[in-house]
């Protein structure tokens, strides 16, 4: 029977039956190119978490492209021509690009500090989407390699909302003004020092370039650098710097859509960070939208990104003097909390796997969970307390639950790490000690239900 011949009730029943037969479809975005083993583990984990062994898992992985070294033209449907020389870098040619044909992203609730969103109406003004309190930049620029010092990096970040607002009003705007008093207020710099600081920045940032990074090849995408600024002139009598920016840089600060993935964060969070702190904060912020809060970076990329390719060569020194200090800086001045572990290829450390969370969001979640827990205690005070809740499970009770160990483990997947590759019997064996512990056994789900169940 075709759907057009069904009543609404029959069509709904048909969908339910189909879903039950083949499982739901889950779309997952990951931050790296997965190996076959990693893909299989992720699929297995999601099926276990959702108790849906027949689920279809669609995985969105970053795609990476080498920039063509020849001239070409793309003729759009509206007959507008994008030339390789003029606007090539506004196209999606980096590792963060998503292929829309794979699947649309499943809706995920994001926190308010770090968000990846796209304009839903082409006529919307940029300033209406992103207020002046937000720093917004394309991920290609965020991941780019450069040797900016703290003041120069602050200067570039300061331009983000300023350029966005100006270009919103005049798309052809290419000259911008940084006022000394505004810059001083932004970064809490004494007024008597800010003028000399801006004067120095206007000279030192001249000639500095950035290089896009090719994550697939794990190297700079092109040896031709892109200048941060076209010109910079410090006007002593007026207390300001006038800068002109290249089209490519302006695009990185104003063009945000699915073809140009971007990161957005509150500008006040980086006001007190050092250069390495800013770099780490931005790298982690670009991943905060992910369902699984972790991201792996190759050591080669990190050394280039933190401008430590030829310093702190022993990995222990690099971690201690760069990564650890950057984490301390970020955690002292922002809500982000960061941990990492090293990954080896043979005996050599080749990657750092970062895990992270927003402490503000986690605090709110804990308070909400505590509120729910207190409500539950209040409403169940008169309910029966079972012996195993105060004494722990006996060997006989554990043996009975073992009969339904697959169902029991599926009901308690929150106690497993995402990378747990063990089989059900091995996991259950590991949990036996916890089931005997009266302080831990009550945290497991479905205990009494399985104890009360009678074999068929």
From TrEMBL:
Q: This protein's superkingdom?
A: Bacteria
The molecular function GO annotations come to: DNA-directed DNA polymerase activity
**What species was this sequence derived from?**
Faucicola osloensis
Q: Which family does it belong to?
A: Belongs to the initiator RepB protein family.
Protein name, as recorded: Initiator Rep protein WH1 domain-containing protein
Q: Which InterPro entries match?
A: Initiator_Rep_WH1, WH-like_DNA-bd_sf, WH_DNA-bd_sf
Q: Tell me the lineage of the source organism.
A: Bacteria, Pseudomonadati, Pseudomonadota, Gammaproteobacteria, Moraxellales
Any GO BP = DNA replication initiation
Name all Initiator Rep protein WH1 domain ranges: 135-284
């Amino acid at each position: 029977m075709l759907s057009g011949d069904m009543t609404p009730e029959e069509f709904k029943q048909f969908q339910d039956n189909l879903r039950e037969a083949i499982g739901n479809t889950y779309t997952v975005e990951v931050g790296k190119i997965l190996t076959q083993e990693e893909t299989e583990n992720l699929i297995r984990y999601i099926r276990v978490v959702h108790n849906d062994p027949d689920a279809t898992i669609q995985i969105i992985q970053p795609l990476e492209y080498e920039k063509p070294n020849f001239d070409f033209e793309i003729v759009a449907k509206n007959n507008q021509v994008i030339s390789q020389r003029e606007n090539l870098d506004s196209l999606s040619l980096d590792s963060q690009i998503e292929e829309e044909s794979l699947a649309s992203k499943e809706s995920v609730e994001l926190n308010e500090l770090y968000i990846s969103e796209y304009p839903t109406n082409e006529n919307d003004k940029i300033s209406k989407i992103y207020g002046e309190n937000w720093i917004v930049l394309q991920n290609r620029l965020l991941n780019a390699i450069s040797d900016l010092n703290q003041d120069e990096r602050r200067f570039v970040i300061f331009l983000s909302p300023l350029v966005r607002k100006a270009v919103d009003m005049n798309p052809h705007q290419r000259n911008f003004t940084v006022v000394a008093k505004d810059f001083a207020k932004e970064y809490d710099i004494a007024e008597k020092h800010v003028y000399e600081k801006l004067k120095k920045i206007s000279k030192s940032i001249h000639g500095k370039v950035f290089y896009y990074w090719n994550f697939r090849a794990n190297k700079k995408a092109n040896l031709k650098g892109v200048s941060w600024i076209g010109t910079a002139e410090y006007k002593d009598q007026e207390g300001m710097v006038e800068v002109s920016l290249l089209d490519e840089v302006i695009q990185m600060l104003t063009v945000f859509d699915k073809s140009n993935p971007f990161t957005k964060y509150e500008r006040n969070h980086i006001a007190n960070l050092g250069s390495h702190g800013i770099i780490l904060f931005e790298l982690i912020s670009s991943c905060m939208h992910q369902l699984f809060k972790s991201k792996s970076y190759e050591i080669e990329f990190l050394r280039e990104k933190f401008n430590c390719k030829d310093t702190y060569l022993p990995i222990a020194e690099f971690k201690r003097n760069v990564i650890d200090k950057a984490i301390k800086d970020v955690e002292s001045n922002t809500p982000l909390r960061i941990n990492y572990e090293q990954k080896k290829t043979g005996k050599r450390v080749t990657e750092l796997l970062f895990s992270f969370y927003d402490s503000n969001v986690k605090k709110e979640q804990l308070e909400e969970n505590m509120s729910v827990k207190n409500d539950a205690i209040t409403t169940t005070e008169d309910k029966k307390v079972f012996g195993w809740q105060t004494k722990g499970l006996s060997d006989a009770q554990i043996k009975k639950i073992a009969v339904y160990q697959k169902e029991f483990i599926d009901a308690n997947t929150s106690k497993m790490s995402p990378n747990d590759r063990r089989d059900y019997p091995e996991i259950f064996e590991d949990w036996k000690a916890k089931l005997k512990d009266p302080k831990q056994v009550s945290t497991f789900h479905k205990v009494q239900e399985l104890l009360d169940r009678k074999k068929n």
